[in-house]
Write a structure and sequence with these properties.
By secondary structure, the chain is mostly beta strands. It has helices at residues 112-115, 127-130, 135-143; strands spanning 2-4, 14-15, 32-35, 39-41, 47-48, 56-59, 71-75, 85-87, 94-97, 101-110, 120-124, 149-151, 162-167, 172-176, 185-187.
Length: 188
């Protein structure tokens, strides 16, 4: 498929959602779209993300990302700053990765009333990052809000969950509220 002349008013050849802002929308996002054999002529912006800003593109042949076959694109979140990923503002407002990006959804929190509408905070937590930390540096890291991204809970039932794109092969630290609200039960 060839996209011609998407070079006006911030237009993009692809969009990750259609009418997700509509009150009847129930999708929590982070769905994967598989693409291949794309061409862009006079179309500098390839992807435009819309609410909920979580679409994942799996590029089978590299014609979307320019990074080769089996590469991925998604909207930028702080926790996606990984060695296998790069920011790509000229192509889209997100990251391009050479390893898989997957959707992970958390739902069914108990007690539900404590989690209703609460954002989930997420940060990289790989061993190479955390093992050298002593107790003081660990506390500093955990209290540094710039290290964490956040994901809003979807508002519609039955999904009412936190769906997020994650780069595979990495560990993440997640918590709810600034106090690290704990749960008794949660489905992943």
């Amino acid at each position: 498929m060839t996209f011609y002349n998407y070079d006006f008013n911030g237009a993009a050849a692809l969009g990750d959602c259609s009418h997700c802002f509509h009150p009847a929308a129930t999708d929590s996002g982070a769905r994967t779209y598989t693409v291949s054999d794309l061409k862009f002529v006079n179309s500098p912006k390839r992807i435009k993300y819309q609410f909920p800003f979580k679409g994942i593109y799996h590029d089978l042949d590299g014609t979307l990302t320019g990074l080769g076959p089996n590469t991925y694109a998604t909207f930028w979140y702080k926790h996606l700053e990984q060695p296998e990923c790069q920011n790509s503002p000229s192509i889209h407002d997100g990251v391009l990765c050479t390893v898989p990006i997957r959707r992970v959804a958390f739902h069914g929190a108990v007690p539900a009333n404590l989690f209703s509408g609460m954002p989930m905070y997420i940060a990289p937590w790989d061993d190479m990052l955390t093992q050298p930390m002593n107790a003081q540096s660990r506390d500093l890291y955990l209290n540094d809000k710039t290290k964490f991204g956040y994901v809003l809970q979807s508002k519609k039932n039955p999904s009412k969950c936190w769906a997020i794109p994650v780069v595979t092969g990495h560990k993440y630290r997640m918590h709810w509220s600034n106090t690290g609200l704990d749960f008794e039960k949660m489905k992943v």
